[in-house]
Amino acid sequence: MTSSALVQALQQAVGTAHVLTDGDLTAYEQDWRRRARGRALAVVRPADAEQVAAVVRACAQHGGTIVPQGGNTGLAVGSVPDETGTQVVLSLRRMDKVRAIDAANLTLTVEAGAILQNLQAAAADAGFLFPLSLAAEGSCTIGGNLATNAGGTQVVRYGNARELCLGLEVVTPQGDIWHGLTGLRKDNTGYDLRDLFIGSEGTLGIITAATMKLYPQPAAKLTAWAAVPSMEAAVELLGLAHGQLGAGLTGFEVMGQFALSLVDKHYPQLRVPLWRESLWCVLLENSDSESEAHARDRFEALLEGALAAGCVTDAVVAENLTQAKGLWHIRESIPLAQAEEGLNIKHDISLPVSRIPAFVAETDALLAREVPGVRLVDFGHLGDGNLHYNVQAPEGGDAQAFLRDEEDRINALVFDAVARHNGSISAEHGIGSLKAAKLPHYKSAVALQLMRSIKQALDPQGLMNPGRVLI
């Protein structure tokens, strides 16, 4: 590869002003958690799918590899370049338009660089709900959400990003454009290419636009915060909520006492409720299509039954939208409080809901025995079996040394426990480069061979995000 020839070809493709080769490129070269810092040959900022295709063809001709990037908020180091200085970062941030809203079909077509929060606002302005919601929604992009099959807080009702997508526009590793922006809910004409690209982390092609599902706005949305005595009680409460709220149950989050103590410590103004008296707290959301009175009656009946059953010891129901946002803000502040506390090891795992209590009990005890003083920050989306099972360094110790000396061992202990309970080592963050070497230990050989066959068939030159997912 002649780097100067490639840079010139990139400049011809998107214009000199949108090919960055010098200056401060930290925002593109460093991941959100500051776990990795690479060096790009160039950062390219195309304006449309045709320019993306031209960039891919230039890289194919000159031997450059491509790292697609949206908001660069990922947690698995999957969207920053390596240290060789030979990779092209393809930033989709300029491609942020809402192309169309089809009210009758309940769909919205949007470019991949659109910020998730802006997409939510566009849907709301049109009188609809776009339900994908996660802590990084003010900076993450819909293309990145689809590339990692993001989940968030409303999966229990609406599903992951995959379930919300009806069609894609994708640039292939050959520089062709697949125009698949259908709004069809039924299309049985062969392999489902849409689902192939969703969750592939940019290793098979570059998502440039998507057609997403919209939903009617609920007539009322209520939030409750409940103290529960154990993880078993939280699972019992989830079952009661499914039975009594049905499709109205849109969110069900669980938070451990230590996780909430960090929020209380670093953000005391948030006034975390009930955490001192209970090992676990649960945040529930009920969306109702009838009225607020109907929603409140059903919610209060659920909590009264749960109190009588003993799976809830105390609860508060938000009286207004401001209080509800405050409760959700507490939940969303856990990762920030953990960062304030210091360096930590993150695990984004999924398990059958029925196995979560046993997993937590077994793995908490295992880590306490193997790593004295370790602190466990357990929280996550219990409604869909996704836990953020994070490990904080012992208090007062050298956190840098803890990560250096213990991270691999702790990862192995946690991931082995996940495997014993029939779970997955990645629920919604993806594999990236952070977990790529670990994937062969926890994915079947048959599955990996199928994945490699697909990668080879679609990207024989290995242009697309090399070293991510499959190594």
TrEMBL record:
Any one Pfam family match given in the protein's UniProt record, by short name: FAD_binding_4
Q: What InterPro entries does its record include? A: FAD-bd_oxidored_4_C, FAD-bd_PCMH, FAD-bd_PCMH-like_sf, FAD-bd_PCMH_sub1, FAD-bd_PCMH_sub2, FAD-linked_Oxase-like_C, FAD-oxidored/transferase_4, Oxid_FAD_bind_N
Q: What UniProt keywords apply to this chain's record, in alphabetical order? A: FAD, Flavoprotein
- For the keyword Metal-binding, the answer is no
Task: Identify the residues that the record assigns to the FAD-binding PCMH-type domain, covering every copy.
Answer: 36-217
PROSITE patterns noted in UniProt:
FAD_PCMH (PS51387)
**Family from the record:** Belongs to the FAD-binding oxidoreductase/transferase type 4 family.
Query: This protein is called what?
Result: FAD-binding oxidoreductase
